[in-house]
Every structure is written in C-alpha cells, then in structure tokens.
Amino acid sequence: VLLDAVQCAEYRQQLRAGLHRIGPWARDVLEELNQRRELERLQQQKNDKEREKEETFGRRFRNVEDFRQVDMARVVNIISTPWHVTNPTAGRKAAAIKAFYDNPQAGIYTFNPNTGLRAAAAATGMSEIEQGQRWLQLWTEVLHKVKKTRGTCYVMAKGTDEDNFELEGGAQHGEVEIAKGFRVPIKNGRK
After folding, report:
1. Domain extent listing, the chain
2. Angle at which helices 24-57 and 5-16 pack, to 10 degrees?
3. Are 107 and 71 contacting, i.e. CB atoms less than 8 angstroms apart?
4. Long-range contacts: 54-63, Cβ < 8 Å, 24+?
5. Residue 117 in contact with residue 139, Cβ under 8 Å?
6. What is the DSSP string of 113-165?
7. pLDDT tens sequence across 31-80
C-alpha cells in the first residue's frame, strides 16, 4: 500500500491540511507495518534464543568438527554401535547416548562413530569403501584418546547386564575386545 503513489499523495495532503484523523487505508498500512515489525521482532528473538542456547550449552558439532573434538576434549567417551543405516534403532540410541553424555563446558566429549568416523574419512580424503575397510583402525585411534583421558566405552547391545549382553553390529565384537584390551571401562549403553 505504501508503494501506491496516489494513496501516499492523498495521505500527505491530509497531513498538510491539518487533518489529524487517519484514513482507513492508512490504518491498514500502519497495521500491516506493525504486523511486519512484530514478525521481524519475533524472528529476531527466536534467532537470539538459538544463538544463546548454542553459546550456553555448546555447539553440536558438525560431522567434520566431530572428529576434531577428540583432540580438544578433556575427557573422551566412545560408543560401540551397529551402523545406523542397517540398524536405525541402535543408531538413534547411540545419538541419544552422545547427547546425554556430551558436556562441552566441562570438556567432556562422546564420540559417535556413525557420524564421527564419516567425518574422519572425509577429512583424510578416504572413499566410503576405504572408510569401511579402515573402520576398526579409525575407531581404535579414538579409543587411544578415551584411554588417555579415562573415558568410557558405551556399548549399544541387547540386554541390560553389564557382563552379559548381545552385540548386533558386525564390528562391535572387535571394538569391545579392543576396549577390554585397553582396559577402558565398558558400560552397556542400552540401559
């Protein structure tokens, strides 16, 4: 409405003539402007809250940054989980374990191989096939940091007993044995 030259000219004439009443079309324009301002204000508030949340609780790391966090954290935990593509339920639970144990302000980082190893492969220029072939090697490199920082290996498995559970992922048997060999504490992540 403000772009309509005729209506704008009429409004200016009313103001010059000393008429203090606002015409109906001007009320509509003002209402529309106020609605737009309110929408912009609400969007800005939403953006500010999201920014504040990220700063307060730490950023959720993008996949490329995920693997780098291993070097920066004070304590690193790791998850042994089936591949999320073949077992989506375990993949979701692994993501929930990561979200629960991550505490960036305290320097605690939980490595989810479903996202982190993909990032490591991308960072080193590995193909998806190479990543699959070197999965255990990459996982073990993270486990070195877990041992050094006295972190924990959370195992996504069927059952709730710490010593008696069923592994579903193809690489998990090797991951658990390596964690035992490193003397890293192992906890059942499905409790």
Report:
1. 5-56, 61-188
2. 110
3. no
4. 57/104, 57/105, 58/102, 58/103, 58/104, 58/105, 59/104, 62/119, 63/115, 63/116, 63/118, 63/119, 63/122
5. yes
6. HHHHHHHHHHHTT--HHHHHHTHHHHHHHHHHHHHHTT--EEE-EESS-SSS-
7. 787 788 899 999 998 888 776 655 543 333 344 456 678 888 999 999 99
